[in-house]
Amino acid sequence: MSVNFEELDFRPTPMGVLSLRRRRQPSSGIDIYEIKLGDEFLMSSLFTVAEIELARLGLAALQRTDLDVVVGGLGLGYTASAVLENSGVRSLVVVDALAEVIEWHEQGLLPLGRQFTSDPRCRLVHGDFFALSHSAAGFDAEQPGRRFDAVLVDIDHSPRNLLHPRHAALYQPEGMARLSQHLNPGGVFALWSNDPPDAAFERVLADAFATSASHVVTFDNWRGDHDASNTVYVGVTAELPKAIA
User: Are residues 72 and 151 in the same domain?
Assistant: First the structure.
């Protein structure tokens, strides 16, 4: 197989055929890692600016240290890696529905994998983020009901463009309200989206959180001739819990 292209792994899953590929970009000589589900690209290391900004913008909204963080969606690991680079982070739980992706990191097939396996603050969890969000037990099976300072999510393409129809409930008012219950007072929910800001979801976010904002993150496209953009949504809970009627 050519040094310029290599299929590192190929797995059948209930969602379809999952493949991990490495290809060399001739113009830069950089190795690009890609994960595909069937014929659809799930993620690429060619564009990582917005995934990193998801962590940066989310954690920047917190006015404290000793942070406990959840990342929904491991992928190639750029959001989780940016979280661990923040010295104020005490613990990180990364939830991914694809055991194969977790294994690729643990086996060192992906460049950032060793960072997660060697950092005692980080735990990779095979699970359904959406089901865990809906559950009162939450994201940490070792400490049911545990609350976090930030929940950062990069799974679906956008609140409208979903990988699976059952994910839709998270982006509705009840779903956002349930997710906010997993956060400490003054905690942050942040979401990556491939699409421009969505007015309907912005209203849902504003109703569920004390403050909210949509950040458009721009970066060079693969041709380098104009800016592409993603969106990072950020919602912050109130500093004090809501009073119980």
Answer: yes
Nearest to 139 by CA among 127, 156, 153, 150: 127
**How far is residue 64 CA from its own chain's centroid?**
21
Q: What is the pLDDT of residues 91-116, one digit of tens each?
A: 999 999 999 999 999 999 999 999 99
> Measured between alpha carbons, how far is 213 from 198 in angstroms, rounded to an integer?
11
Residues linked to residue 125 through DSSP beta bridges, in sequence order: 95
At position 161, the amino acid (one-letter code) is N
Distance CA 35, CA 33 (A): 7
Q: Are 180 and 208 in contact (CB under 8 A)?
A: yes
Helix (H) or strand (E) holding 105: helix 99-106
71 and 8 in a single domain? The answer is no
Instruction: For residue range 27-77, list pLDDT tens digits in order.
Output: 777 899 999 988 888 888 988 999 999 999 999 999 899 999 999 999 999
Amino acid identity for residue 188 in this structure: V
H/E segment holding residue 189: strand 183-193
Give me 38's structure tokens.
């069937």
Both tokens of residue 101? 């992706």
User: Residue 114 corresponds to which tokens in the numbers above?
Assistant: 């060793």
Sheet of strand 16-24, all strands in order from the earlier edge strand to the far edge = 5-13, 16-24, 31-37, 40-44
Which whole-number Å values give the CA distances from 78 to 15, 81, 164, in the listed order? 23, 5, 23
23 within domain boundaries: yes
Same domain, 126 and 41: no
